[in-house]
TrEMBL record:
Keywords: Cell membrane, Membrane, Transmembrane, Transmembrane helix, Transport. InterPro entries: MetI-like, MetI-like_sf, UgpAE/MalFG_permease. It comes from Perspicuibacillus lycopersici. The chain crosses the membrane at residues 7-32, 71-91, 103-130, 150-172, 202-219, 261-278. This is Sugar ABC transporter permease. Residues 65-275 form the ABC transmembrane type-1 domain. PROSITE patterns: ABC_TM1. GO terms for cellular component: plasma membrane. It holds the Pfam family BPD_transp_1.
């Protein structure tokens, strides 16, 4: 028993140390610095809650929170609906199921910055060419307005992440006992009723996981936002992560940016943990 305990801590120890050094210590230091006037170029002085009072007067920060929230709501819904739909499609024992799984998952292998530049080319050059060819004016000038920039980010995110979410749903769908599906079919339940009353309750743990992943990813997204719209036009498509980065490194207001990051962390953690709590209560055991 002692040998097992020793080997356990030998394997776990480096991970815990790394976690503390990379995550926990910076988190504590960042929280402390948020109560100072540190700019990254000079020493810091304690100023209390001044940064937190000022950030709620920062219109650009509040606008980025509103834009990020709208983006997150739409992205979460579409990612889970499309991801689950793809999972249901490729678990129907089609001959091309393995091929389709690979195709749907492949966009997730492309880096965020590269993906943003690829879709920027599509939205600006390809859409503009097709719009002129087919006389569809609404295809021209994509990413030049807040609305098209918003939907451009949504399309990019769904295209990249839907396959990843699909994989998680597949893992749970393949674990659903077929006897229950067959019993419901014998009782006269149609396809929708079987999915709603049998399949979905059994894969709800996957829904909890996917909801948490899509929520955290949507709120924290930075690289795709940078490469696709760079927050334009006039910072109207700027998400919170980009706004905090600009505050810290463009304006050299490190402590002020850290106070924004603390508030942002509280918001995302609060929403994420709340949805996990309520979804866990609705899960059923096989």
């Amino acid at each position: 028993m002692k040998n097992k305990s020793l080997s356990f801590w030998l394997f776990l120890g480096p991970v815990l140390i790394s976690l503390c050094v990379v995550v926990l210590v910076p988190l504590i230091y960042g929280f402390i610095f948020s109560f100072t006037d540190w700019t990254g170029l000079k020493g810091s002085n304690f100023i209390g809650l001044e940064n937190y009072v000022d950030l709620f007067k920062d219109k650009e920060f509040l606008q980025s929170i509103w834009f990020t929230t709208k983006f997150a709501v739409v992205a979460i819904i579409l990612l889970n609906v499309i991801g689950l739909g793809l999972a249901l499609l490729v678990t129907r024992k089609l001959k091309s199921s393995n091929f389709l799984r690979t195709i749907f998952f492949m966009p997730n292998l492309i880096g965020g910055l590269i993906l943003g530049f690829i879709w920027q080319f599509i939205f600006i050059n390809v859409f503009d060419g097709v719009g002129k060819l087919l006389h569809m004016e609404w295809l021209s000038g994509w990413l030049s307005t807040t609305e098209t920039g918003f939907w451009g980010l949504i399309i990019l995110t769904v295209w990249q992440w839907a396959g990843y979410i699909m994989i998680i749903y597949i893992a749970y769908l393949e674990g659903v006992p077929q006897e229950l599906i067959e019993a419901a079919e014998m009782d006269g339940a149609n396809s929708f009723q079987r999915f709603r009353n049998v399949t979905f309750p059994l894969i709800r743990p996957a829904f909890t996981v996917c909801l948490f992943l899509t929520l955290s990813h949507s709120f924290k997204m930075y690289d795709q936002n940078l490469s696709l719209t760079a927050g334009g036009p006039f910072n109207s498509t700027q998400m919170v992560a980009m706004e905090i980065y600009k505050t810290a490194f463009n304006e050299n207001l490190m402590a002020f940016a850290q106070s924004k990051a603390v508030i942002f962390f509280i918001i995302v953690a609060g929403i994420g943990l709340t949805q996990v709590y309520f979804n866990k209560k609705k899960e059923v055991d096989l």
